[in-house]
What we know:
By secondary structure, the chain is an alpha/beta fold. The protein has helices at residues 36-48, 63-71, 102-116, and strands at residues 5-7, 14-16, 20-21, 53-57, 79-83. 31% of the residues lie in helices and 15% in strands. Helix 1 (36-48) crosses helix 2 and helix 2 crosses helix 3 (102-116).
Amino acid sequence: xxxxxxxxxxxxxxxxxxxxxxxxxxxxxxxxxxxxxxxxxxxxxxxxxxxxxxxxxxxxxxxxxxxxxxxxxxxxxxxxxxxxxxxxxxxxxxxxxxxxxxxxxxxxxxxxxxxxxxxxx
Length: 121
């Protein structure tokens, strides 16, 4: 049985209505302990099941690295969403500044791509 798909906004991308939230791949101490072997099995099963939308974040510890290590060779099969609102290790925002700056969003995107899509330019 195929997983239903729908348009992602006005991007023209067809993403599955069921996505995979990769937070569980972050491992201990903030999540349950998960081995690299388990992470590899989970990620490949996600793609094998037809899911093409994977959600991750810079705040998910090892998640992005494991995505890059175990399924980057299948990159054409999925879309990767990475949140960047988690200001990991950043100093507090100046008084009156709300949200994430454009610079921070670009830095998060660059870090996420380096970890989860190591073969892309």
